[in-house]
């Protein structure tokens, strides 16, 4: 059985200690750590904050761009109380790791954006200090998600070659916890919601690892009981339910308890947003009402901290998104730290939650490769595809288990811009869509963001999606600048073709944008100037507004972000509506005018 991925909490039955702080770290370019047993103590380490993305902390190229094996070590004191289970929870280690406790290997994990937990009750030394060591690796290959390759530089160093457009930040990038939980405990839960008149029926299911009774209780914000039921599954009716909505993100609390002889054996509290998400014809419905998605593709990305979660930055991002009138964002291109979803629940934001299936095209600049005549790299025709699919499946499972109970999560995205232009792609993706559907009891819509060469005549995968998601760059990668008139004509031609084959499904834009320097103004505009970014968006909105089945617009990107260096990027991607420091470019005011209407 997989360890529970429930978010840590403290109450009479559960507690946790944070293992965050300064750890030891050592790079292992020659991969001698295992042979020399570095799990027994790092021979020549430096200090590193955990959590952190190590790349931007140092001043040397060798450290920033380090690719290969690297080790972490810390020590923690375990109290003498063995009456509760002891579990280590790693919220994300990018991209893979082996974990050692006191020199013994106790587990490993593949995938850098979802948590994993290891029960150490039987091997931890109670009443003593314990050494915790990790061998981490951040190489990219055709089986890893995200996908890429690893090259060797002329000086012998390895370097990551992502097939995607964001920096390969890595390390122990999210918190590490030592959980103490009861021996018989709550492993997981889910809820399905049906609205009936003014009431709501909450069908819940709780998974425990024992046979004792479970009690589920729902409370209003001011602590009044709204419903209760005994049993590991059942339905609770909330009378006159207050719904969770973007304007009024009301959250009930739900508490599950395992009870024996009137005593709580375990207790897990969570927030519950009462809302439904459905597709009806070519509309997306939230609580039965049409909703138009307005917002952003984002990244977890900031100066110095890389991809580490920072609560102040997250609040600033939500405030800025709200200020522009946005209601939605996509966690491009990987599941974000869990705190993002908690905040979205509170702020009333909608999330399209994306698995790190990005770079599924053998190209260092897939946006350019796909544009220039539609390059085809036969990505899904190779011996390693089944291993890739296994990693993809695991990441999907971990993401859906982790995020399914957030009311903010309205859809799951199964991919970003793979090659979808031949039947093997569909053979690859169809079972993953089925699998995702089977995991989500709420049966939320599934989608995937389609690259510009996934056109209606060529794409073999759009039919798998409950709503179509397009990443389109007419006026940027295609016919930019003075040729924007031609871009508009081409865009309309493509939209006409989509309208012919699937105007009965909702279609949203998951990306469209233009690189813009916050320092450039030009009259008349040129590409990269703020004036051009506005003209680009005005043209795109004109097209989108002409098609009735368009149900959303998520611009690319919320803020400028770091990428691998190269001739197409000026110290990162500059398509932000905000700078990397979270200050507005001119386009922010344009979006605000449009979205606040
Ligand atoms: C895309 C990718 C995104 C890139 C963006 C761009 O299509 O999905 O990761 O950053 O284009 O700016 O080129």
């Amino acid at each position: 059985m997989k360890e529970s991925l429930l978010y840590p909490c403290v109450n009479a039955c559960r507690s946790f200690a944070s293992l965050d702080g300064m750890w030891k770290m050592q790079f292992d370019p020659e991969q001698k750590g295992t042979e020399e047993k570095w799990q027994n103590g790092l021979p020549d380490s430096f200090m590193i904050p955990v959590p952190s993305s190590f790349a931007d902390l140092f001043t040397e190229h060798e450290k920033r761009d380090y690719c290969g094996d690297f080790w972490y070590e810390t020590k923690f004191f375990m109290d003498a109380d063995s009456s509760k289970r002891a579990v280590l929870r790693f919220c994300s280690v990018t991209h893979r790791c082996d974990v050692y406790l006191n020199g013994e290997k106790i587990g490993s994990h593949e995938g850098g954006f979802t948590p994993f937990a290891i029960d150490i009750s039987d091997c931890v030394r109670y009443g003593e200090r314990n050494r915790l060591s990790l061998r981490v690796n951040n190489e990219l290959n055709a089986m890893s998600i995200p996908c890429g390759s690893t090259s060797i530089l002329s000086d012998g160093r390895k370097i990551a070659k992502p097939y995607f457009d964001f920096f390969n930040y890595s390390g122990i990038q999210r918190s590490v916890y030592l959980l103490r939980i009861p021996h018989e405990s709550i492993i997981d839960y889910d809820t399905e919601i049906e609205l009936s008149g003014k009431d709501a029926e909450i069908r819940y299911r709780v998974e425990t690892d024992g046979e004792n009774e479970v009690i589920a209780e729902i409370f209003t914000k001011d602590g009044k009981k709204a419903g209760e039921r005994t049993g590991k599954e059942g339905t609770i009716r909330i009378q006159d339910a207050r719904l969770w909505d973007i304007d009024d993100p009301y959250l009930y609390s739900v508490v599950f308890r395992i009870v024996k002889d009137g005593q709580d054996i375990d207790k897990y509290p969570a927030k519950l947003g009462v809302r439904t998400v459905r597709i009806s014809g070519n509309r997306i419905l939230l609580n039965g009402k049409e909703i138009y998605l307005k917002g952003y593709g984002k990244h977890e990305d900031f100066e110095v901290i890389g991809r580490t979660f920072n609560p102040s930055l997250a609040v600033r991002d939500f405030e800025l998104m709200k200020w522009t009138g946005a209601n939605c964002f996509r966690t491009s291109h990987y599941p974000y730290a869990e705190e993002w979803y908690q905040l979205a629940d509170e702020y009333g934001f909608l999330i399209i939650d994306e698995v790190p299936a990005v770079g599924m095209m053998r190209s260092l600049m897939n946006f350019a490769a796909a544009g220039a005549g539609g390059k085809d790299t036969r990505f899904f025709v190779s011996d390693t595809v089944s291993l890739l699919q296994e990693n993809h499946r695991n990441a999907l499972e971990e993401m859906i288990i982790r995020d399914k109970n957030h009311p903010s999560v309205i859809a799951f995205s199964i991919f970003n811009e793979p090659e979808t232009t031949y039947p093997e792609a569909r053979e690859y993706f169809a079972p993953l869509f089925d699998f995702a559907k089977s995991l989500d009891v709420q049966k939320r819509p599934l989608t995937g963001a389609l690259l510009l060469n996934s056109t209606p005549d060529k794409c073999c995968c759009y039919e798998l999606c409950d709503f179509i998601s397009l990443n389109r760059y007419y006026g940027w990668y295609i016919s930019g600048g003075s040729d924007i008139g031609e871009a508009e004509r081409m865009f309309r031609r493509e939209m006409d073709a989509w309208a012919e084959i699937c105007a009965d499904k909702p279609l949203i834009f998951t990306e469209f944008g233009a690189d813009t320097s916050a320092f450039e103004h030009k009259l008349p505009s040129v590409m990269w100037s703020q004036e051009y970014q506005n003209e680009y968006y005005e043209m795109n909105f004109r097209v989108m507004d002409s098609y009735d089945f368009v149900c959303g617009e998520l611009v690319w990107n919320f803020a400028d972000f770091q990428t691998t260096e190269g001739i197409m990027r000026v110290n990162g991607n500059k398509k932000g509506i905000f700078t990397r420091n979270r200050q507005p470019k001119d386009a922010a005011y344009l979006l605000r005018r449009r979205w606040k209407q």
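DSSP finds nine helices and 32 strands in the chain. The chain has three domains: 15-181, 186-272, 277-595.
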